[in-house]
Automatic annotation (TrEMBL):
Source organism (scientific name): Popillia japonica (Japanese beetle)
Subcellular localization(s) per the UniProt record: Cell junction; Cell membrane
GO cellular component, one term: presynapse
Signal peptide: none
Record-given protein name: Protein lin-7 homolog
InterPro entries referenced in this protein's UniProt entry, alphabetically: L27_C, L27_dom, L27_dom_sf, LIN7, MAM_complex_regulator, PDZ, PDZ_sf
BP terms from Gene Ontology: exocytosis; neurotransmitter secretion; protein transport
Membrane topology annotation: Peripheral membrane protein
Annotated Pfam families: L27, PDZ
Domain PDZ: 121-203
PROSITE patterns to which the protein is assigned, alphabetical: L27 (PS51022), PDZ (PS50106)
Length: 228
Protein backbone atom coordinates (compact mmCIF):
# COMPACT_ATOMS: atom_id res chain seq x y z
CA UNK A 1 0.00 0.00 0.00
CA UNK A 2 1.15 3.59 -0.52
CA UNK A 3 2.97 5.34 2.32
CA UNK A 4 0.78 7.35 4.66
CA UNK A 5 0.25 10.85 3.31
CA UNK A 6 0.98 9.95 -0.30
CA UNK A 7 -1.80 10.67 -2.82
CA UNK A 8 -3.90 7.81 -4.17
CA UNK A 9 -2.60 7.76 -7.74
CA UNK A 10 -4.19 5.65 -10.48
CA UNK A 11 -1.40 3.04 -10.40
CA UNK A 12 -1.43 2.71 -6.59
CA UNK A 13 -5.20 2.69 -6.49
CA UNK A 14 -5.53 0.05 -9.20
CA UNK A 15 -2.89 -2.14 -7.53
CA UNK A 16 -4.86 -2.09 -4.29
CA UNK A 17 -8.30 -2.42 -5.91
CA UNK A 18 -7.32 -5.29 -8.20
CA UNK A 19 -5.94 -7.28 -5.27
CA UNK A 20 -8.84 -6.56 -2.93
CA UNK A 21 -11.64 -7.20 -5.41
CA UNK A 22 -10.02 -10.26 -7.02
CA UNK A 23 -9.68 -11.94 -3.61
CA UNK A 24 -13.31 -11.19 -2.80
CA UNK A 25 -14.56 -12.45 -6.16
CA UNK A 26 -12.64 -15.72 -5.85
CA UNK A 27 -14.19 -16.33 -2.44
CA UNK A 28 -17.65 -15.72 -3.88
CA UNK A 29 -17.04 -17.91 -6.90
CA UNK A 30 -15.96 -20.76 -4.63
CA UNK A 31 -19.56 -20.81 -3.44
CA UNK A 32 -21.39 -21.81 -6.62
CA UNK A 33 -24.47 -19.77 -7.39
CA UNK A 34 -23.83 -17.03 -4.82
CA UNK A 35 -24.19 -13.56 -6.37
CA UNK A 36 -21.58 -10.81 -6.18
CA UNK A 37 -21.90 -8.74 -3.01
CA UNK A 38 -18.79 -6.59 -3.27
CA UNK A 39 -20.49 -3.48 -1.89
CA UNK A 40 -21.55 -5.43 1.21
CA UNK A 41 -18.06 -6.90 1.60
CA UNK A 42 -16.50 -3.44 1.39
CA UNK A 43 -18.95 -2.15 4.01
CA UNK A 44 -18.03 -5.02 6.35
CA UNK A 45 -14.33 -4.32 5.82
CA UNK A 46 -14.87 -0.69 6.82
CA UNK A 47 -16.76 -1.77 9.95
CA UNK A 48 -13.90 -4.13 10.86
CA UNK A 49 -11.36 -1.32 10.43
CA UNK A 50 -13.40 0.89 12.76
CA UNK A 51 -13.33 -1.85 15.43
CA UNK A 52 -9.57 -2.32 15.01
CA UNK A 53 -9.06 1.43 15.41
CA UNK A 54 -10.89 1.31 18.74
CA UNK A 55 -8.83 -1.67 19.96
CA UNK A 56 -5.57 0.15 19.27
CA UNK A 57 -3.70 -3.01 18.25
CA UNK A 58 -2.77 -1.63 14.81
CA UNK A 59 -1.41 1.92 14.17
CA UNK A 60 -4.45 4.16 13.70
CA UNK A 61 -2.87 6.14 10.86
CA UNK A 62 -2.49 3.05 8.67
CA UNK A 63 -6.03 1.90 9.39
CA UNK A 64 -7.39 5.37 8.61
CA UNK A 65 -5.54 5.41 5.29
CA UNK A 66 -6.96 2.01 4.32
CA UNK A 67 -10.45 3.06 5.38
CA UNK A 68 -10.15 6.19 3.22
CA UNK A 69 -9.39 4.03 0.17
CA UNK A 70 -12.33 1.71 0.86
CA UNK A 71 -14.70 4.68 1.18
CA UNK A 72 -13.37 6.52 -1.88
CA UNK A 73 -15.34 7.29 -5.03
CA UNK A 74 -12.45 5.69 -6.90
CA UNK A 75 -12.94 2.25 -5.35
CA UNK A 76 -16.69 2.53 -5.85
CA UNK A 77 -16.11 3.26 -9.56
CA UNK A 78 -13.77 0.26 -9.81
CA UNK A 79 -16.37 -1.96 -8.12
CA UNK A 80 -19.12 -0.86 -10.53
CA UNK A 81 -17.01 -1.46 -13.63
CA UNK A 82 -15.69 -4.79 -12.28
CA UNK A 83 -19.19 -6.10 -11.58
CA UNK A 84 -20.36 -4.93 -15.01
CA UNK A 85 -17.51 -6.74 -16.78
CA UNK A 86 -18.04 -9.87 -14.67
CA UNK A 87 -21.77 -10.00 -15.39
CA UNK A 88 -21.70 -9.20 -19.11
CA UNK A 89 -18.50 -10.63 -20.61
CA UNK A 90 -18.37 -14.34 -21.51
CA UNK A 91 -15.01 -15.54 -20.17
CA UNK A 92 -14.27 -19.26 -20.52
CA UNK A 93 -12.12 -21.20 -18.07
CA UNK A 94 -11.89 -21.96 -14.37
CA UNK A 95 -13.22 -19.71 -11.63
CA UNK A 96 -9.73 -18.35 -10.96
CA UNK A 97 -9.20 -17.61 -14.67
CA UNK A 98 -12.52 -15.78 -14.88
CA UNK A 99 -11.83 -13.71 -11.76
CA UNK A 100 -8.34 -12.82 -12.95
CA UNK A 101 -9.50 -11.95 -16.48
CA UNK A 102 -12.27 -9.75 -15.12
CA UNK A 103 -9.80 -7.93 -12.87
CA UNK A 104 -7.39 -7.36 -15.76
CA UNK A 105 -10.18 -6.03 -18.00
CA UNK A 106 -11.18 -3.60 -15.25
CA UNK A 107 -7.59 -2.44 -14.77
CA UNK A 108 -7.27 -1.93 -18.54
CA UNK A 109 -10.40 0.23 -18.60
CA UNK A 110 -9.05 2.48 -15.86
CA UNK A 111 -5.52 2.59 -17.28
CA UNK A 112 -6.97 3.82 -20.58
CA UNK A 113 -8.68 6.64 -18.71
CA UNK A 114 -5.56 8.01 -16.98
CA UNK A 115 -5.63 11.79 -17.16
CA UNK A 116 -9.41 11.74 -17.60
CA UNK A 117 -12.39 10.96 -15.40
CA UNK A 118 -12.60 7.32 -14.38
CA UNK A 119 -15.06 4.97 -16.11
CA UNK A 120 -18.46 4.49 -14.51
CA UNK A 121 -21.47 2.29 -15.20
CA UNK A 122 -24.84 3.81 -16.07
CA UNK A 123 -27.93 1.60 -16.43
CA UNK A 124 -30.99 2.99 -18.19
CA UNK A 125 -34.41 1.43 -18.79
CA UNK A 126 -35.22 0.81 -22.46
CA UNK A 127 -38.77 1.95 -23.18
CA UNK A 128 -40.84 2.78 -26.25
CA UNK A 129 -39.72 6.40 -25.97
CA UNK A 130 -36.09 5.34 -26.43
CA UNK A 131 -33.12 6.16 -24.21
CA UNK A 132 -33.27 9.93 -24.42
CA UNK A 133 -29.80 10.81 -25.72
CA UNK A 134 -27.88 11.27 -28.98
CA UNK A 135 -24.38 10.08 -29.86
CA UNK A 136 -21.83 11.47 -32.28
CA UNK A 137 -18.38 10.49 -33.53
CA UNK A 138 -16.92 7.13 -34.50
CA UNK A 139 -14.03 5.49 -36.33
CA UNK A 140 -15.10 6.92 -39.68
CA UNK A 141 -14.81 10.42 -38.21
CA UNK A 142 -11.49 9.63 -36.52
CA UNK A 143 -12.95 10.29 -33.08
CA UNK A 144 -14.35 8.44 -30.05
CA UNK A 145 -18.12 8.02 -29.71
CA UNK A 146 -19.67 10.60 -27.39
CA UNK A 147 -22.97 11.49 -25.79
CA UNK A 148 -23.64 14.72 -27.68
CA UNK A 149 -27.10 15.56 -26.33
CA UNK A 150 -29.33 14.63 -23.40
CA UNK A 151 -32.93 15.11 -24.55
CA UNK A 152 -34.83 17.27 -22.00
CA UNK A 153 -37.45 15.20 -20.18
CA UNK A 154 -36.24 11.95 -21.75
CA UNK A 155 -35.19 8.72 -20.01
CA UNK A 156 -31.53 9.72 -19.61
CA UNK A 157 -32.50 13.17 -18.35
CA UNK A 158 -34.88 11.74 -15.74
CA UNK A 159 -32.37 9.11 -14.66
CA UNK A 160 -29.62 11.71 -14.22
CA UNK A 161 -26.65 9.34 -14.51
CA UNK A 162 -25.53 10.28 -18.01
CA UNK A 163 -23.87 13.56 -19.05
CA UNK A 164 -23.34 15.41 -22.29
CA UNK A 165 -19.63 14.92 -22.90
CA UNK A 166 -19.53 11.29 -21.70
CA UNK A 167 -17.43 9.08 -23.94
CA UNK A 168 -19.18 5.78 -24.67
CA UNK A 169 -16.86 2.84 -23.92
CA UNK A 170 -19.21 -0.14 -24.08
CA UNK A 171 -22.87 -1.09 -24.50
CA UNK A 172 -24.10 -4.16 -22.61
CA UNK A 173 -20.56 -5.52 -22.34
CA UNK A 174 -19.64 -4.91 -26.01
CA UNK A 175 -16.80 -2.43 -26.49
CA UNK A 176 -17.39 0.45 -28.90
CA UNK A 177 -13.92 1.99 -28.56
CA UNK A 178 -12.45 2.43 -32.02
CA UNK A 179 -15.72 1.32 -33.65
CA UNK A 180 -17.91 2.96 -36.28
CA UNK A 181 -20.80 5.19 -35.27
CA UNK A 182 -23.31 2.76 -36.74
CA UNK A 183 -22.17 -0.11 -34.48
CA UNK A 184 -22.87 1.90 -31.33
CA UNK A 185 -26.28 2.95 -32.65
CA UNK A 186 -27.15 -0.65 -33.56
CA UNK A 187 -26.14 -1.95 -30.10
CA UNK A 188 -28.33 0.68 -28.46
CA UNK A 189 -31.25 -0.25 -30.71
CA UNK A 190 -30.84 -3.98 -30.01
CA UNK A 191 -31.03 -3.54 -26.22
CA UNK A 192 -34.22 -4.79 -24.57
CA UNK A 193 -35.53 -4.01 -21.10
CA UNK A 194 -32.50 -2.03 -20.03
CA UNK A 195 -29.06 -1.05 -21.26
CA UNK A 196 -25.79 -0.90 -19.32
CA UNK A 197 -23.31 1.69 -20.51
CA UNK A 198 -19.69 2.14 -19.46
CA UNK A 199 -18.77 5.80 -19.94
CA UNK A 200 -16.20 8.35 -18.84
CA UNK A 201 -16.61 12.11 -18.68
CA UNK A 202 -14.27 14.01 -21.04
CA UNK A 203 -16.17 17.17 -22.10
CA UNK A 204 -13.11 19.01 -23.44
CA UNK A 205 -12.53 16.34 -26.06
CA UNK A 206 -16.18 16.61 -27.13
CA UNK A 207 -15.82 20.39 -27.45
CA UNK A 208 -12.74 19.94 -29.66
CA UNK A 209 -14.64 17.39 -31.75
CA UNK A 210 -17.61 19.70 -32.22
CA UNK A 211 -15.33 22.59 -33.21
CA UNK A 212 -13.63 20.35 -35.79
CA UNK A 213 -16.97 19.22 -37.23
CA UNK A 214 -18.20 22.83 -37.31
CA UNK A 215 -15.13 23.91 -39.29
CA UNK A 216 -15.69 21.04 -41.72
CA UNK A 217 -19.31 22.14 -42.24
CA UNK A 218 -18.21 25.74 -42.80
CA UNK A 219 -15.65 24.66 -45.41
CA UNK A 220 -18.29 22.52 -47.14
CA UNK A 221 -20.72 25.49 -47.24
CA UNK A 222 -18.04 27.77 -48.70
CA UNK A 223 -17.24 25.24 -51.41
CA UNK A 224 -20.95 24.88 -52.20
CA UNK A 225 -21.32 28.67 -52.48
CA UNK A 226 -18.35 28.83 -54.85
CA UNK A 227 -19.93 26.25 -57.14
CA UNK A 228 -23.22 28.16 -57.13
Amino acid sequence: MAQIGEPLTLSRGMWFCEGFITKRIKLKMAQIGEPLTLSRDIKRSIELLEKLQKNGEVPATKLAALQKVLQSDFLNAVREVYEHVYETVDIQGSQDVRASATAKATVAAFAASEGHAHPRVVELPKTEEGLGFNVMGGKEQNSPIYISRIIPGGVADRHGGLKRGDQLLSVNGVSVEGENHEKAVELLKQAHGSVKLVVRYTPKVLEEMEMRFDKQRQRARRRQQQYN
